[in-house]
Specification:
The chain has 252 residues and is an alpha/beta fold. The protein has seven helices and 15 strands.
């Protein structure tokens, strides 16, 4: 049975309790749920940096948290480490969805607080979970659920290809590459030519660059004036004009 963790980031105790109760009552075949109400939601913001976020995790986030960080801040940080986990926003204003869209957060669902009853919550959560599972199935079909084992510090690390941002040669370290993913920043053994061979049949990698291999699916923005590629987690890569020109060919 698959376990789905549900993190509840809500500052009002009554709402947090109601959401916890709703999670416990969800009944879907072959799924079990672990409710994780966050009482220290301010401290949890810092803990996200050290949390291993699974694709199946769901975060229920109040957009109007009464703290230094609002709900969008939490969601942006979660998206920095995982593109596919579920995010359900709680809001008293259903027009706030426009602001979320502008932040490129890709929320799974919204729950408006003026209809905040147990039946509505359970129904919304159930629909959101099914939507997340359908998204995962689509992603796994598209990427063929492919993984790559890379050698780093004497051990082998399993990397999901869809989470890769880029591979980069290291001028001062022959036979080694810099690998940047959504959750890892490591030095691995290998060369660009060897990696090109391994990835030649994976259509979403740009492999015709001299010292880089870039995952096209994780590129969010290209800024030619700054010589900058910005990825979906706001990671930045500075490159030359020739590289930008080749990347633009793949995008446009």
């Amino acid at each position: 049975m698959e376990l789905i963790r549900v993190f509840i980031i809500e500052d009002l105790f009554t709402h947090r309790s109601l959401l916890t109760r709703a999670v416990k009552n969800i009944g879907l075949p072959n799924l079990s749920f672990e409710d994780l109400p966050i009482e220290d939601y301010i401290g949890f913001y810092e803990e996200i940096d050290h949390l291993i976020i699974r694709d199946t995790d769901i975060f229920i986030i109040d957009l109007d948290l009464k703290s230094f960080y609002n709900g969008i801040d939490y969601a942006k940080k979660i998206r920095k480490y995982n593109l596919y986990s579920g995010i359900i926003f709680l809001t008293a204003d259903d027009q706030q969805g426009i602001n979320v869209i502008n932040q490129r957060i890709h929320a799974t669902s919204y729950l408006v607080k003026d209809v905040f009853d147990i039946a509505t919550i359970e129904s919304t959560l159930g629909e959101a979970i099914l939507a997340i599972r359908e998204l995962h199935e689509k992603i796994y079909v598209e990427h063929n659920d492919q993984y790559l084992f890379v050698q780093t510090e004497g051990k082998y690390l399993k990397i999901r290809l869809s989470s890769v941002l880029y591979f980069e040669t290291i001028k001062t370290m022959k036979g080694y590459l810099h690998l940047k993913t959504l959750s890892h920043d490591v030095i691995i053994r290998g060369t660009i030519s060897e990696m090109r061979t391994k990835l030649e049949n994976i259509h979403f990698f740009i492999t015709n660059l001299r010292s880089l291999i870039i995952n096209l699916h994780t590129v969010e923005t290209i800024n030619p004036s700054e010589g900058q590629i910005i990825f979906c987690n706001d990671e930045q890569l500075f490159v030359g004009r020739k590289v930008l020109k080749k990347v633009k060919v793949h995008i446009y």
